[in-house]
Design brief:
This protein has 241 residues and is mostly helical.
Length: 241
Amino acid sequence: MGSALINIAGSAFLSVYRIVLADKVPLLFPAMSSDPVWYGQVFVSVIQEIATTIVFYKAYKKLVRYRGLVENDDFIEMAKLQEEIIPGSISTLSSYSIGQLLQVWAVILIGVRFIYDLSAIVYRDFVMKISEVVIAASLFGGVNLSEIYNNTHGFKYIGMFTAVVLGTTITAIFLRDNFLKGLCMGVTVFFMLAFVVMNMGNISIFGMDVGIVWTSIIFHICETVGLMGLAVYLGRRYRGM
């Protein structure tokens, strides 16, 4: 939930930031081509990385503190008592398993996110170079920059999207939660349809035309509202675990 709140705050700030700097974006080029917009995005990403690392560090310290309340010799006896009293229909996790899941999500939301940020730098350079070629070629007709941008944009997100879905699936496997497994499958199918089939949409915000890349929309929903929904669901469904 802490990671989701950080991502929501970052997305909200960047949305306002891009609207304010809309006149800095060169005509016919994507928003990322503007240096002020781009470096603002990089700054926010760095802050998100640091804040998320702090969240996971505090969670790990809390887990260590809780484990320290029980003597090592008592863990086995508590596990036996848990197995005898709690029905098999109710999912339970040991503190060891919770620690494993904490590591999985730390790798995804910190490690994979770092790789995602680095790949975004390479992707921007790629888009800038191909934009120059496509805009020049469009003068002769038959080439559309928005279609190329839309069709390649999914590659920017697919790694991080896959990691989030994989983390949710691993969590579902630990908890024997079929609902989460089915949800992951549905979101993945939806993302791939948007990647392969859907074209870029277009809306007007405060007089500024904005292209909508659906793979981008799905990804950012997953890492903000999706993570928040997952946190709330786990907190209520598995209270007291």
